[in-house]
Amino acid sequence: MKIILLGYMGSGKSTIGRLLSERLATSFIDLDAEIEERVNLSVSQYFERFGELRFRKLEREVLLDVLGRSGSMVIATGGGTPCYGDALEQMKSHSDAVTIYLKASIATLTDRLISQKDSRPIIQQLTSTELPEFIGKHLFERSHFYLQADHVVPIDAKDQRAISEEILALL
Ligand code: S3P
Fold first, then answer.
1. Ligand 1: which residue has its CA nearest to atom 12?
2. Residues with Cβ < 8 Å from 22, sequence gap 6 or more?
3. Nearest to 99 by CA among 109, 86, 107, 89
4. What structural domains does the chain harbor?
């Protein structure tokens, strides 16, 4: 089975993904890390040098590569992965894949992202005051994609272990 975690930046996809893979004794794949390894640049550096459009193309390529691998795995996608081109369809069309949206509120995301702003190309240019409004609008646009996940797991005020247990119970 491929468990695919979707959600906005800061929703905990990588942390929860790693925990789940430990519990299930499967491999864990962080899509951003796969991309970084492939191009030998950080996601921020890639954005800076080649721009978002090239990043989205590369992101799709790496996603297809990962989806084509055999065996069980937990995949943490990037916040934008399901929102471009046919990426979501590709994920959902895999018969052994389960997509899970880690749903966080604007307040939770703002709290988490405010201190990590500089390392994240999408929100780097914003001031801390602009951040909640930006997240609100961006999340609204992206929710259309996120909400097509097979399961929606609200994560506000829950600890990581409780979230992974909740996900395990869904499988
Ligand atoms: C992005 C989220 C990031 C990374 C890139 C773009 C986005 O992943 O893929 O910076 O568009 O939301 P995380 O959600 O893992 O931070």
1. 79
2. 28
3. 89
4. 2-170 (3.40.50.300)
User: Nearest 5°: CA angle at 18, between 89 and 52?
Assistant: 50
Q: 100: how many CB neighbours lie within 10 A of its CB? A: 25
Is the minimum distance from the CB of 122 to ligand 1 under 6 angstroms? yes
pLDDT at 94: 86
Tell me the pLDDT tens digit for each residue of 7-17: 999 999 999 99
* C-alpha span between 112 and 10 (Å, rounded): 6
pTM to 2 decimal places: 0.97
CA 170 from chain centre, in angstroms, equals 19
CB 31 within 8 A of CB 81: yes
Q: What is the mean pLDDT of residues 125-151?
A: 97
Residue 65 sits at φ, ψ, to 5 deg, of -60, -50
Q: Is the CB of 35 under 6 A from ligand 1?
A: no
Reading the block at residue 55, the tokens are: 């990043």
Buried b (16+ CB within 10 A) or exposed e, 144-165: ebbebbebebebeeeeeeebbe
